[in-house]
Amino acid sequence: MPRALATPWVAMFLTLLLLTGFSHLAWAHAILMESTPALHATVPGPDVPIRLRFNVRVDGSRSRLHLLAPDGSLHTLPLAKQSTPDVLQSQATGLKPGAYKLKWSALASDGHMSSGEVSFTVK
Ligand SMILES: [Cu+2]
To answer: What is the pLDDT of residue 98?
Structure first.
């Protein structure tokens, strides 16, 4: 009876899934909810305010923002003091027109780092 044999394994697999993946989701590490500039937005330069809002509190002192410029150079953006625990803010200055990539890594309240990118264009 293959079905009867398979059932304990399915149950075990589902339990493992719950213990690993699902509990991790429940702890909710940082997921980007909203950004300025918005993804694929075109914004005026040369100074561009940066604001990232997450689903949870993030540790501003241990989160990082980097800006990849059209010429391939990578710049660290200094983070401003957090006005709200779920927001990271900065200001990119002196940007020439072109395509940029904002790379963020954020330390969430559950102790997990997560990262992502926001592409935008300066006109
Ligand atoms: Cu996490």
So the answer is: 98
pLDDT at 11: 72
Ligand 1 center to 59 CA (angstroms): 13
State pTM to two decimals: 0.78
**Cβ-count burial 56-68 (b if 16+ within 10 Å, e if not):** bbbbbeebebebb
Q: Helix, strand, or coil here: 61?
A: helix
Q: How far is the CA of 21 from the centre of ligand 1 (A)?
A: 10
Rounded to the nearest whole angstrom, what is the distance from the C-alpha of residue 33 to the centroid of ligand 1? 15
Task: List the domain range (segments joined by +) for residue 56.
Answer: 29-122
CATH number for the domain including 51? 2.60.40.1220
Q: Is the pLDDT of residue 22 over 60?
A: no
